Amino acid sequence: MKEQPKLPKKPFIFYYVVVLLALMLINALIVPSLNQPTQVDYGTFLDWVDEDKVTQVELDQTAGTIYFIAPDDSGQDKIYATGIWPGDDTLYQRLHEKEDIQFNSVVPRQNSPLLSFLLSWILPILLFVVLGQLLMRGMQKRMGGGFGNAMTFGKANAKIYVQAQTGKTFADVAGEDEAKEALQEIVDFLHNPAKYEAIGATMPKGALLVGPPGTGKTLLAQAVAGEAQVPFFSISGSEFVEMFVGMGAAKVRDLFKQANEKAPCIVFIDEIDTIGKKRDSGAIGGNDEREQTLNQLLTEMDGFDGRKGVVILAATNRPDSLDPALLRPGRFDRRIPVELPDLQGREAILNVHAKDVRMGSGIDMRAIARATAGASGADLANIINEAALRAVRMGRSEVTQADLEESVETVIAGYQRKNAVISPQEKKIVAYHEVGHALVAALQSGSAPVTKITIVPRTSGALGYTMQVDEGEKVLMTREEAVAKLATYTGGRAAEELIFGDYTSGASNDIEQATKLARSMVTRLGMSEKFDMMALETVQNQYLGGDTALSCSPETAAQIDGEVLSLIRAAHQKAAGILREHQDKLHELAGYLLEKETITGEEFMEILHR
Ligand code: ADP
Ligand code: MG
Ligand code: ZN
After folding, report:
1. pLDDT at 144
2. Whose CA is nearest to atom 18 of ligand 1?
3. Whole-model pTM?
4. What is the Å distance from ligand 1's center to 220 Cα?
5. How far is the CA of 218 from the centre of ligand 1 (A)?
6. Cα 97 from chain centroid (whole Å)
7. How far apart are CA 463 and CA 417, in angstroms?
8. 106 pLDDT exceeds 90?
9. Residue 6's pLDDT is what?
10. Distances (CA, A) of 465 to 34, 429, 453, 521
11. 430: helix, strand or coil
12. What is the percent of the chain where pLDDT is above 70?
C-alpha cells in the first residue's frame, strides 16, 4: 500500500553522529579559544616579572611551559603562557624574591568559570535532551510504539488512505463478484447514508473478508479505499502487537478515536487473526497483551455508533481461529468469502494482469485458466510475470502462448533443469513411469484428459510429469472419478513393475497424493463401504493447507487405515491390469517420449488410438 508522504526517516545513528560532531566542534574550536592562554615569549615573561606585573605563576615542568597571570592593558587579569621554558634554575630564585607572586600555584586556565561550566556541563546535557527527543520522535514514526508510546501513551500510527493514494479500484479486482457486491454496498452506504436511513436499515458495523492466501483480500480492501471517497484507515493486526502490556490496547483506543473524529470512514484491519485469536488458548502464562488488545477491540466495536458511518473491514485466512466474540452480531457480523477463483475468475484475473504486459496476438487465456485449477489470484499474477520474464530471456518483445504455458509449469513444478545429468537407464524408467500414469488415466472413464507428458527434469525435483486438465470447471467429484484418480496415481509405479520387474523411489509423490485422496475418501467424503457417511475427520484450517484431525477411537483409526490400504491396493491392481493389457502401447509411447522428451495431449491420443 502506498503511504502518506511523511518526513524522511533518518536512522538513529544519524542524530547521534550529528550531536557528536557538534560536541567535538565545540570542544575543538570554542572551548579552547576561550580558555587558551595568550602566548608570550619567555623573555617577555621575565620582563614582566621584573616589572612586578605578574601575580601568579605555575611552572608546568612536564609540558615545559609556564602559565602565569598578569593584568592586560585594561587592568583585567589574563592568562598567559610562555613558549618552551628553557628550565633555568635561576628562575626559582628570581620568583622567590618577588614577594607578590604566588609561586607554583595552579593557574586556572580559563577566564570565565561560568561560561566554562555552561560549555562543559549544560551544553552537552542540552544536546542530549535534543537528541533524545529526536530519537523518540523517530521511533514513534517508525514503529508507533516502544519508547514513544511509553511517554505519550498510545498513538496508533494507522495510516490514512484517501482515494488517490491506493490507486486501486474494483476494476483491478477480477472475479470475486460476490465480494465486490457486498463491499460495493458498504461504499454506497458511506456515500449516501440517507437512502439507507430512510428505510430504517443500518449497515453492519463490520465485515470480515475470509479466504485462502493470495485471493485478493488485501487488494479488495485497497479497492474499497479507492472507491469510497472517505478516509480509510488501514492497519495490520501485527502492528497492534507490542512489547509492553497495554500498548496494543492503547493503540486500538487511539485508532477508534481517530476514526470517530473522521467519520464517515473505513477502518481496515488486515490479518486480524494476529490479535483476534481465541482467548484462553491454554498457553502457559497466557498472552495478556494480546488478550487486552482483543478486549479493547471488542469494547470499541460495541462502543461506537454504527449510524455515524464508521465501517470496520478485516481480513483473515484463519477464520476458524478467531474468537467467537468477534464474530457475533454487532461486531463482524458480515462475513465475505473470498474464495479461490473458478475458471472464469481465473481467466478474468489473467486478463487483468495481462493488461500490464505486452502480449502477442492470438493468446488463448482460457487454455491457461483451464490449466491452473486451484491457483490463487496471486499465483496467476505470478504466472503472467514469469511469462513476461521468460519472453525477455528469450529476447522477444512480446509474450507468447508458449511463454505462458511454460510459466504455468514453472509455477507448478519449478524451473527446467537444463543441465541435470540423468543416465539413459533412469531416463527410460521415468519415461515408462510417466506414460504409465497417462495410459491409466486415458483408458479409464472418469479421468481428465492428458494434455502433456514430459520427462524434462524440474528444479522442484520432479523428473517428469503428466499434466491432466479438465475441460470445464469441476466442483464435484464422483466416486468413479475418485477411484480413477487413485488408479492414475498408482499407474507410474505399476508401469515400472511391469516393464522392469523392479521399482524405484520415483513414486514417492504419487504415494503421498494417493494416500491423501484415499484417506479423505474414507474419512470425509463418505466413499467407503465400511464407514458409509460417517465423518471421521474434521478439517482444521480450511484455508491454510487444510490439516485434518481424527475424531474417533483408536480402534476405528486402525480400521480406517485398513480401509485406506484396501482402496489403494485395489487401485494399484486396476492400474497394473490396464497396463498389462496395453503393454504394446506402453512401449510405443515410452519410446516416443524418450525421443521427444515432451509430448502433447494430441500426440498422445493419436498414438494411443492408431
Ligand atoms: P490476500 O490478502 O488475500 O492474501 P492479496 O490481496 O495480497 O491477497 O493479493 C496478492 C496479489 O494477487 C494482488 O496484489 C494481486 O496482484 C493478485 N490478485 C489476487 N486476487 C486477485 C484478483 N481477484 N484480481 C486481480 N488480482 C488479484
Ligand atoms: Mg493479505
Ligand atoms: Zn508418478
Report:
1. 43
2. 377
3. 0.68
4. 8
5. 7
6. 85
7. 9
8. no
9. 44
10. 84, 13, 6, 24
11. helix
12. 84
Q: Which residues contact ligand 1 via a Cβ below 6 A?
A: 173-176, 213-219, 315, 349, 352, 377-378, 381
Residue 273 region by backbone torsions, left for phi larger than 0, else alpha for psi between -120 and 50, else beta: alpha
Note the pLDDT of residue 468.
86
Pocket mutation for ligand 1, best pick of 177, 215, 224 (most atoms within 8 Å of C-beta) = 215
- The minimum-distance atom of ligand 1 relative to the CA of 345 is 23
Catalytic residues: 434
Cα–Cα distance for residue pair 448/452, rounded to 1 Å: 12
Grid coordinates representing 349 are 484475473
Binding-site residues for Zn(2+), please? 433, 437, 510
Segment holding 453, helix H or strand E: strand 450-454
491's enclosing H/E stretch is: helix 479-500
CA of 601 to the centre of ligand 3 (A): 17
pLDDT band at 209 (very low <50, low <70, confident <90, very high): very high
pLDDT of residue 1: 40
Alpha-carbon distances of 608 from 267, 286, 450, 573, rounded to whole Å = 60, 63, 12, 21
Instruction: Render pLDDT for 113-155 as a digit per residue (tens, 0 to 9).
Output: 666 677 777 777 888 888 888 777 766 555 444 443 444 444 5
Whether 287 contacts 274, CB under 8 Å = no
Question: Which ligand is located closest to the Cα atom of residue 504?
Answer: 3
The rounded Å distance from CA 28 to ligand 1 centre is 59
Q: Is residue 31 classed exposed, middle or buried when 0-12, 13-18 and 19+ CB atoms within 10 A define those classes? A: middle
Ligand 1 atom 17: the closest Cα is on which residue?
A: 378
User: Which atom of ligand 1 lies closest to the CA of 341?
Assistant: 23
The confidence score (pLDDT) of residue 85 equals 67
Name the nearest CA neighbour of 312 among 193, 192, 183.
183
How many Å apart are CA 511 and CA 500, to the nearest integer?
A: 19
Q: State pLDDT tens for residues 428-465.
A: 999 999 999 999 999 998 888 898 898 888 877 778 88
Stronger pLDDT, 36 or 584, i.e. the higher one: 584
Q: Is the Cβ–Cβ distance between 593 and 585 less than 8 Å?
A: no
208 pLDDT tier (thresholds 50, 70, 90): very high
Nearest ligand for residue 236 CA: 2
Question: What is the DSSP track for 165-201?
Answer: HH---GGGS-S-HHHHHHHHHHHHHHH-HHHHHHHT-
Only one residue has cell 447514508, namely 193
Q: Please give the Cα distance from 313 to 265 (Å, whole number).
A: 11
Residue position matching grid coordinates 484517501: 162
Q: Taking the CB of residue 226, how many other CB atoms lie within 10 A of it?
A: 22
> How far is residue 25 from each of residues 22, 28, 132, measured CA to CA in Å?
5, 5, 20
267 vs 80: CA distance, rounded Å: 72
Long-range contacts of 579-584 (CB under 8 A, 24+ apart): 579/436, 579/439, 579/440, 579/491, 579/494, 579/495, 579/498, 580/498, 582/439, 582/443, 583/498
Q: Which residue has the cell 492470438?
A: 362
